[in-house]
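re the bet — no i am not wrong, look at it urself. input seq straight from the record:
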Amino acid sequence: MNPLKLFGTGRREQSRDTVGAQRHTVISGEVDVSHGPILYLENVTVSFDGFKALNELTLYIDDGELRCIIGPNGAGKTTMMDVITGKTRPDSGTAFFGQTMDLTRMSEYEIASVGIGRKFQKPTVFPRHTVFENLELAMRADKRVWPSLWGRLDGQQRDRITEVLETVMLTGQQALRAAELSHGQKQWLEIGMLLMQDPRVLLVDEPIAGMTHQETERTAELLTGLAGSRSVVVVEHDMAFVRSIARKVTVLHEGHVLAEGNMDEVQNHPAVIEVYLGG
C-alpha cells in the first residue's frame, strides 16, 4: 500500500488560503504544492517551563528547494524540526505539509509515511547488517511477520536499492557491514535509508559533524544533488559548508526568524553579525 494513501479516503476538502492564492479543492492525502511551498509554519509557539523555544515562528519551504537553517544554540532549530515531524506539539500556530495536511493533528508515524524524513546528527543504522540489508530494511514494504520472513525482493526493488546505493556513493560497500563503514559513510547510509522511503521533504541535522574534508565535500555534492526532486532542509553550524551548498539561508534567534536571504545577505546583516557571527 502506498503510504500516501493513508489519508486518501476520497474525502475532498478546501485548501488553506495561506499566501493569498485562489482557494481550490484537492483530495485529502495528496501533497498539494500548487501555491509553491511544501512546508508552512505560521506563528508557531512552543514553550518549555515558561521558556519559548519557538516564538511565533513563521517559515515557508518551497517544493524542491535546498534551505539551510543556522543560528546560535537555543535558537529553536531542533524544536522546529520536532514540530515538523510531530515529536512536539506547538502551543499555538499552524504547521502544514502542502495545503491540506495539518501536521499538528498527525502522529510521527503518519508524518513519516506521507513523505517527511528526518536524519539526526548521530547516524542510526543497523551495524551488524550489510549496507544492502540496511537499505532493504528501510524499504517501504509489508512489515508483517509472514511477508518479512518469506518475502523476496523483486527486480524493481533491487533496482531501487541499486539506485540509492549510487546516489549515496556506497555502491562498492554494499556487502560491508554498516559497522565497518567510516563515520561519513554511515551518515550517507542513513540518508540512503531515508531515501528508500521516497520522502518529499528531507530534514538533515548537522550532516558533516565528525567528517573528514573529503567526506564533507562529497556530502555537499550529495545534498545539492537531492534538491529539486525533493525539498532538503539542512541545519548546520559550519559556515563554510553552508556557503558551499546554500541557495537560501534562514537565521533563527530566540525562536523566530532573524534574517533570511542568500549567504552574502545573511552574513552582512547587522543583527546576524551581532547575535551569531560576531564581529
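see?? Residues 1-15, 17-28 have pLDDT under 50 and may be disordered. told u. also The chain is about 30% helix and 25% strand. so pay up
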